[in-house]
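Deliverable D2.4 — example input (structure tokens):
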């Protein structure tokens, strides 16, 4: 049985680490599942699984360098180069969500991005705290005092029924553009494939590439941003 999970298995302890589903951290999920099902189990990072799938026969097919992104309850990533998934000694390849949000600022109607929201990893201002679904929800609630789901905020913005929703989603896109420009500057991928709940916001694929050129270290940006 193969299982994609948030986080990874620590090479030093054999236990789950770096999972935004924090109840998994510190547990031997692979051996627990193997015992429960009485058969072998292999675990892999969910964003790595996503990236392999999209690069094999999905939106990243036939592209040499693919950066796969999951924008959901967290913010994961995977990197595939010339058909091979990259994996380093710390099992954290592609974990862009736990770098700080680059070029922090105060956007119209938004709170100061410094020091940033607290992250489950114990730091403040991680990219994940801004560009995950809960990050959008937090921004909207801060601006309006109202709680709404990320899907509701996107729908309100799409129908232009709520000016605050439009403003909140634009702040989200601005932050996502800055965050992905940092990835482009380091990795220079041919394509960035978005998955997860936030990838369903269709306007991201026009707005974000229109913005990220300000921060990408190039006179033009040929990288494609596409949905899974």
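Example output (designed residues):
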């Amino acid at each position: 049985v193969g299982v994609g999970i948030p986080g990874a298995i620590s090479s030093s302890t054999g236990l789950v680490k770096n999972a935004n589903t924090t109840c998994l951290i510190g547990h031997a999920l692979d051996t627990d599942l193997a015992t429960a099902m009485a058969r072998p189990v292999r675990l892999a990072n969910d964003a790595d699984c996503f990236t392999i799938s999209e690069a094999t026969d999905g939106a990243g097919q036939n592209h040499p360098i693919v950066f796969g992104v999951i924008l959901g309850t967290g913010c994961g990533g995977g990197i595939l180069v010339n058909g091979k998934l990259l994996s380093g000694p710390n099992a954290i390849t592609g974990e862009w969500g736990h770098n700080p949000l680059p070029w922090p600022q105060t956007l119209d109607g938004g709170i100061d991005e410094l020091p940033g929201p607290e992250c489950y990893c114990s730091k403040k201002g991680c990219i994940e705290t801004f560009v995950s679904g809960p990050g959008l929800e937090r921004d909207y609630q801060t601006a309006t005092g109202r709680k709404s789901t990320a899907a509701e905020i996107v729908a309100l913005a799409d129908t232009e029924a709520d000016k605050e929703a439009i403003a909140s989603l634009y702040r989200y896109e601005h932050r996502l553009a800055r965050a992905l420009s940092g990835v482009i500057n380091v990795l220079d991928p041919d394509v960035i494939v978005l998955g997860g709940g936030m990838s369903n916001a269709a306007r991201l694929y026009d707005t974000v590439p229109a913005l990220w050129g300000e921060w990408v270290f190039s006179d033009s940006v040929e990288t494609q941003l596409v949905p899974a």
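The CA atoms of residues 48 and 78 lie 5 Å apart.
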